[in-house]
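Propose amino acids for all 422 sites.
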C-alpha cells in the first residue's frame, strides 16, 4: 500500500485552473498535472491524432466524442463498471488520486455509463488515461485510449437488425485478404449473461467481432498500414475476462513478425446499461490503446517521443498519413545507480520511486531498473538499488548535468521517504 511520506503535502493542488483539496492518499505529482492540458489525440499531424481519425473513419455513423474531463470519482472509474472492491487497479500504487473522492481515469470505459445515459446508441470516445507505472520505452504514465460501443433494442426487430448487419459484414470480409483465428462467441468459460437471450447475445458477440475485424482491416490493411497485399492480414481472437463484459475477448494482430495485443472487448454487462437508465437494450463495447498501435504503425521506437515538442519529430508527420519515423539520432546513455536503506516501517513501491524520478528528471530518463533488493538479516531493514538510464531524445546530456539531476533525485528520496543512501 501507500508509503509513509515524511514531507508535507500542499493543502490543495491546481488542475486545469481549479483548486482541489488534497488528503492522505493524494499521489498526483506535478509532472502528471502538467500533461493533463496537452490532449495529444487532438493535435493535428500528431501520429496519435492520425490514428484516432483512422479509427473514426471505420465508424462514420457513430458519435465521435473526445472532450471529457479526466477527473472522475473512483466510483465511476471502478464501481459503476462492476470492479470488485479488491481490484488492484484501485490501489494508490497503480492509480493517481487527487484525493479519496477524485482520481484520474485509468481507462475510457469509465465514461460508458454517462454516454449511454445521454442516449447515444453507437459512439467512439477518445481520451487521455493515467496509470502509475514503471519507466521504460513502452510504458508512460499517460496514454490514450479509444472506447467504442454499439447497443441494439432487445426485441425481434433489434435481433433482425443485428443478424442482417452480420450477414452484410460477413460478405464484405469474405472479399478481403484476412485470416481470422476465432474462438466461440460464447462458451462455458465465457458465458452469456444471466437474463440475456442466448440467441441475441451470441448475435451481438458475432457483430462485435465482425465490426472489429473491419476496424483492424481499416487500420492495418488497405488504407492503413497496407498489410494484406501479399501475405494475408492475420487476426486472432482470445477469450478474456473483464468485470464489465461477458462474454469478453481480446484481439491480437500479426504485424512485422509479432502478435500484437490491441484491444479488449465484450458484450456489455447489463448492470452498466441498467445504471445508465437504458432499458431493453443489449450491446457490445471495446477499448484500445493508441500508443501501442501507433508505435508499430509509425515505427516510433520510444513512447516518450509522442510527447516531444522537437520539430525533428513533429514535422515528420502529416495528418491522415501513416509514415515511417526516421530517427534523427540516438544520443548516448548515462547510467547512474542509487542504493539506499529504507527506514523501518517505510515502504517504497517501484512506482513511487519512478514517480520521484519522473518528477525530477521528466522525459530525460529512458528507463529505470531495480538491480538489487535485500533485507538485512539482523536489522530487518530493506535495501534497494535502482539503475537510472538518462538519455535525452533531443540532445547530448553532459555528465555534470546528469550528476545534478541525480543529486536532486537523491535529495527528493531522502526528503520524501527518509532513505539512507549507501
Ligand atoms: N477498459 C479496458 C482496459 O483499459 C479495455 C476494455 C475491455 C474496454 C473490454 C471495453 C471492453 O470496452 O468491453 O484495459
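Proposal:
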Amino acid at each position: 500500500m501507500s508509503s509513509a511520506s515524511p514531507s508535507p503535502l500542499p493543502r490543495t493542488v491546481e488542475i486545469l485552473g481549479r483548486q482541489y483539496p488534497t488528503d492522505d492518499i493524494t499521489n498526483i505529482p506535478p509532472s502528471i498535472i502538467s500533461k493533463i492540458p496537452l490532449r495529444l489525440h487532438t493535435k493535428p499531424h500528431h501520429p496519435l491524432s492520425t490514428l484516432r481519425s483512422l479509427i473514426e473513419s471505420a465508424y462514420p455513423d457513430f458519435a465521435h466524442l473526445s472532450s471529457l474531463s479526466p477527473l472522475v470519482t473512483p466510483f465511476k472509474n471502478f464501481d459503476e463498471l462492476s470492479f470488485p472492491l479488491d481490484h488492484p487497479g484501485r490501489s494508490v500504487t497503480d492509480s493517481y488520486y487527487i484525493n479519496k473522492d477524485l482520481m484520474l481515469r485509468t481507462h475510457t470505459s469509465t465514461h460508458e455509463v454517462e454516454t449511454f445515459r445521454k442516449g447515444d446508441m453507437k459512439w467512439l470516445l477518445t481520451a487521455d488515461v493515467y496509470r502509475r507505472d514503471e519507466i521504460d520505452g513502452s510504458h508512460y504514465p499517460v496514454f490514450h485510449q479509444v472506447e467504442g460501443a454499439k447497443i441494439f433494442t432487445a426485441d425481434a426487430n433489434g435481433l433482425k437488425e443485428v443478424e442482417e448487419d452480420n450477414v452484410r459484414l460477413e460478405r464484405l470480409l469474405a472479399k478481403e485478404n484476412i485470416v481470422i483465428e476465432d474462438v466461440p462467441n460464447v462458451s462455458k468459460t465465457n458465458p452469456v449473461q444471466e437474463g440475456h437471450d442466448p440467441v441475441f447475445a451470441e448475435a451481438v458477440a458475432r457483430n462485435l467481432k465482425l465490426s472489429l475485424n473491419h476496424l483492424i482491416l481499416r487500420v492495418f490493411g488497405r488504407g492503413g498500414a497496407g498489410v494484406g497485399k501479399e501475405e494475408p492480414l492475420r487476426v486472432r481472437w482470445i477469450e478474456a475476462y473483464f468485470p464489465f463484459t461477458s462474454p469478453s475477448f481480446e484481439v491480437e494482430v500479426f504485424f512485422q513478425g509479432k502478435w500484437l495485443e490491441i484491444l479488449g472487448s465484450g458484450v456489455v454487462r447489463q448492470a452498466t446499461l441498467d445504471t445508465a437508465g437504458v432499458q431493453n437494450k443489449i450491446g457490445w463495447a471495446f477499448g484500445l490503446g493508441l500508443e501501442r498501435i501507433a508505435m508499430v504503425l509509425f515505427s516510433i521506437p520510444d513512447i516518450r517521443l509522442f510527447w516531444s515538442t522537437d520539430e525533428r519529430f513533429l514535422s515528420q508527420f502529416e495528418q491522415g498519413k501513416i509514415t515511417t519515423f526516421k530517427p534523427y539520432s540516438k544520443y548516448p546513455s548515462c547510467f547512474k545507480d542509487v542504493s539506499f536503506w529504507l527506514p523501518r516501517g517505510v515502504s517504497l513501491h517501484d512506482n513511487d520511486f519512478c514517480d520521484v524520478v519522473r518528477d525530477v528528471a521528466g522525459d530525460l530518463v529512458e528507463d529505470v531498473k531495480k538491480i538489487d533488493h535485500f533485507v538485512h538479516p539482523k536489522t530487518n531493514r530493506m535495501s534497494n538499488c535502482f539503475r537510472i538510464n538518462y538519455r535525452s531524445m533531443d540532445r547530448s546530456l553532459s555528465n555534470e548535468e546528469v550528476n545534478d539531476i541525480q543529486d536532486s533525485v537523491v535529495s527528493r528520496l531522502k526528503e520524501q521517504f527518509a532513505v539512507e543512501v549507501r
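The pocket of 3,4-dihydroxyphenylalanine is lined by residues 107, 109, 147, 242, 245, 264-266, 285-287 (CB under 6 Å). The domain at 12-314 is CATH 3.30.930.10 (BirA Bifunctional Protein; domain 2).
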